[in-house]
Request: fold
Amino acid sequence: MIRPSPHIRRPMRAHRRRRLAAAASAVALAAVTAGCAGEGGGSGDGSVLTVTTGSIGDNDVANFNPFSSEPLQATNGWIYEPLFFFNGVQAGDVKPWLGQTYEWSEDGTSLTITVRSDVTWNDGEPFTAEDVAYTFGVVAGNESLNSYGLPIESARAQDESTVVLTFSESALAQEYYILGKQKIVPEHVWSEIPDNDKATVLNENPVGTGAWAVDSVEPTTMVLRARDDYYVEGLPHFDTVRFRSFSDNNAANAAITDGSIDWGGTYIPQAEKNYLSKDEYFDLVNIPIATAFLIPNAQEGPTADADVRHALSAALDRDFMNQNVYGGVNEPAHPSGLLLPNLESVADPDLADAQFETGEDAVAEHLTSAGYTRNEDGDWTRDGEQLSLELSIVSGWSDYISMADMARQQLAEVGIELTVNAVSYQEWTDLRNRGEFELVLDSAGFTPDPRAYYYNLLSSNLARPIGEESPEGNYGRYENEAVDEALRAIAQTTEVEEQLPHYYEIQRLFMEDMPLIPLFAAQNMMEFNGNNVTGYPTNENPYASPAIWLDPDGGWVAARLEPVE
Reply:
């Protein structure tokens, strides 16, 4: 999924980073107090978990709509839950959540799911299979709500605990999105909301099945209270979660390093010196779950030409960026775009030693093929116009700003002009999701499933027309029928040996077309204040991704964190 970033990623679902941001069309609220939290709350001892996802600006709209492209961080996994938990850092590790079991038909066009019978919504109403059928029925009937491009034909509750979904084509490749990403909503609430409003309603007082309910939302702080009737006995362990938002990374890092934050998700330069050395109980967990990419617009402008994309790639010094921004800790990217070593099981062994083309000669070869010539000033031009591109980034993300500046300098050395457009997070998200950019710096992956990984990056099902929202992936609107055919073939079987030739084909096509420009593994530093919190995922015990901004993993982890006694 495409990114969240090291500050709030989202997966290309994304994120990524589900950030504390509101839908652009929403009406701003100065503060909202929701009345759905229990009086007691959880099994904790009155303790408060203070968290931040980093630099996201003010949080002044109480948007908890799980169908929105940018709901508040706590919406997904904390308040609204999916059917199963797919461990973002361990492929094949799938655990029940709202669902108990699932079974596919042999051709992948039917999916039978059994759900829990002991769950209630936070307004006291029982959760049933009817809610699941309703949710998928809404998605099937409204393209604007079908963020993952699911080919749903029908959704039917056989009884209170069994749901049958049918699809117009094999949906095996979308298992992760169906079972692990789609959040379930209560029919008794959402059936009262007109279909035309479902994507934009704020849903200030969310009714969910999750471990947390909303207490209050104010411009820089959101407070959640633990439910005292959550269906998993003993969870959550904290009574209260306090989300804090900051105007930029520096402010967020200051709060993290002075011990005010228990769980943070920001990039801290020279983390050993600037964070770990501050307190013996401070801990840093860094488990790669995504790749950092330059994402070109594949539909219009200069980057619609694969030769231009190859030239940009050849001009970049990835190792220099990694060393100077991240101290060289991020793993190198592979030219196939595949996230390694996470998804090594589907890597083409014949491409194991593949390297990026680099250097001025490679740049010249590709730009000449694209019809450009280099003038006496050293600039590449076509039809009298210099090759000039704009890279859009978020103004508060300091590491990405540094990377963008390095890219600008490196491209200038080979005669390509790059301007950097640093904008607010909301503006950047709108540009990215609508495809109204030439280049964006983002990260993608955030899934343990290689089927979902390449689908999210490359499927034309997600390539909506420029100007229309594509919030869950393929932001560059890349389209290649051969890639789509390979994805369809992968979806026809669960036998990995039968899938492998099609994965190999996608990797080769990726290297030919360079639809995204891989840089290196995306930074994923998560800070934990061991004075106050324990039970978090680690490299030794990766029961989940430690990324607070990851949807829905952050909610899974939050319920399992424990206060230090």
Q: What stands out?
A: DSSP finds 14 helices and 24 strands in the chain. Residues 346 and 500 are 6 Å apart (CA to CA). The radius of gyration is 23 Å.
